[in-house]
Design a protein that fits this description.
The chain has two domains: about 260 residues, Crotonobetainyl-coa:carnitine coa-transferase, domain 1 (Rossmann fold), CATH 3.40.50.10540; about 70 residues, no CATH class. It is of the alpha/beta class. The strands form four sheets. A six-stranded parallel beta sheet has the order 5-2-1-6-7-8, sandwiched between helices. The protein has a three-stranded antiparallel beta sheet with strand order 9-10-11, covered by helices on one side. It has a two-stranded antiparallel sheet with strand order 3-4. The chain is built from 15 helices and 13 strands. About 35% of the residues are buried. Helix 1 crosses helix 7.
């Protein structure tokens, strides 16, 4: 596998990860992939809740194994004053803290941003929450579905005139929280290099998801009324839609531009008509029905072969189990394997677009690196023993 040009970009950057479940751990995995030294600070009793969610391999959750490579685990009860003081001592030498508690929890623990910055004015604290650190929803609980509902994202998917469609992945968690959080941290690190000052980053997953509607909101500002199932890119156009094949597979058709629409129709033996690209709803429905009838005459494999020589923006919908063997992903080495640790064995990993890590260690067992990490942060053997 070709080494990522960013594999050592964050070498020397110390990250203390207080997060659980998905948004924070995915974010800190991205930092670890770029060479950051990520230490998961976990409650000694339960640790990251993601550890307990089945299915598992060797006693380790598959989801946990997928988003925690290259990290180390330190078991530390932050509700214990001695452990809290130890954490504050670590903060003095750290660069980044990532937390995803409800707003106000860090302050109740005596670890609010002011307390952290007093120990280390250069510290960068990234706080991921559902609705932000301020505002009327600051105390409200939520999950990904709630966040994308309030962001307007959920309303844009589904059949015209019907209910919003359930998303297949966690949009607000990952795109709204993880990726915006990582972007903010990298920006803050660059800013600190210039100013010498740290920052408190307030990452709202709702706002992160809402930002993906930027283009649609621009249309709305010009008088448009964004509606699910009728927009060009969410189901309103026959040339940008999903069609079943003879063998109950699906084709994703994205022939939006005239040249692609012409190529598609020529490929399937249908007379091309440029006017259909911008046809009214009734005309789009008629065109859609004609395309559906044609695509239903061949299997997905047959259509793949027939359309291969035509540049018409059509791809077979790949099921998740098929991804590792897809020729594109194999050629690009998107999937790779690392050692999952004792009792786990080899585990399949997915690299991000930033590239694969060069020497990613296995996802850690709870508290596996406690003594090692504390020693590196300057604690004596006696102090380590006192922390349990």
């Amino acid at each position: 596998m070709v080494a990522s040009p960013l594999a050592d970009a964050l070498t020397g950057i110390r990250v203390l990860d207080l997060t659980r479940l998905l948004p924070g751990p995915f974010l800190t995995m991205v930092l670890a992939d770029m060479g950051g030294d990520v230490v998961k600070i976990e409650d000694p009793r339960v640790g990251d809740y993601l550890r307990a969610i089945p299915p598992a391999k060797g006693g380790m959750s598959g989801r946990f194994l997928a988003v925690n490579r290259g990290k180390r685990s330190l078991a530390l009860d932050l509700k214990n004053p001695t452990a809290r003081d130890a954490f504050l001592k670590m903060v003095e030498q750290a660069d980044v803290i990532v937390e995803s508690f409800r707003p106000g929890v860090m302050a109740k623990l005596g670890l609010g941003y002011d307390a952290l910055a007093a120990r280390n004015p250069k510290i960068i604290v990234c706080s991921i929450s559902g609705f932000g650190q301020t505002g009327p929803y600051v105390e409200r609980a939520g999950h990904d579905l709630n966040y994308i509902a309030l962001a307007g994202v959920l309303a844009m998917g589904g059949e015209a005139g019907g209910a919003p469609g359930m998303p297949g992945v966690q949009i607000a968690d990952l795109a709204g929280g993880s990726l915006w959080g990582a972007t903010a941290i990298l920006g803050a690190l660059v800013g600190r290099h210039r100013t010498g000052k740290g920052a408190h980053l307030d990452i709202s997953m709702t706002e992160g998801a809402l930002s993906m509607l930027t283009a649609e909101l621009g249309n709305m500002d010009c008088g448009a009324r964004p509606t699910r199932g009728v927009e060009t890119l969410n189901g309103g156009v026959a040339g940008y839609s999903v069609y079943p094949t003879k063998d109950d597979r699906y084709l994703a058709v994205g022939a939006l531009e005239p040249k692609f629409w012409i190529a598609l129709n020529q490929a399937i033996g249908r007379p091309p008509n440029i006017a259909e690209v911008v046809g009214k709803p009734a005309e789009q429905a008629k065109t859609r029905a004609e395309l559906a009838a044609i695509f239903a005459t061949k299997t997905a494999a047959e259509w793949t072969e027939a359309l291969a020589v035509h540049d018409c923006c059509v791809e077979v919908v790949v099921e998740p189990l098929e991804l590792p063997d897809h020729p594109l992903h194999r050629a690009r080495e998107v999937f790779f394997t690392i050692d999952g640790g004792e009792g786990v064995g080899p585990i399949q990993q997915v690299r991000t677009p930033l590239g694969a890590p060069t020497n990613a260690g296995p996802p850690p067992r709870l508290g596996q690196h406690s003594r090692q990490v504390l020693g590196e942060y300057g604690f004596t053997a006696e102090q380590i023993a006192a922390l349990g």
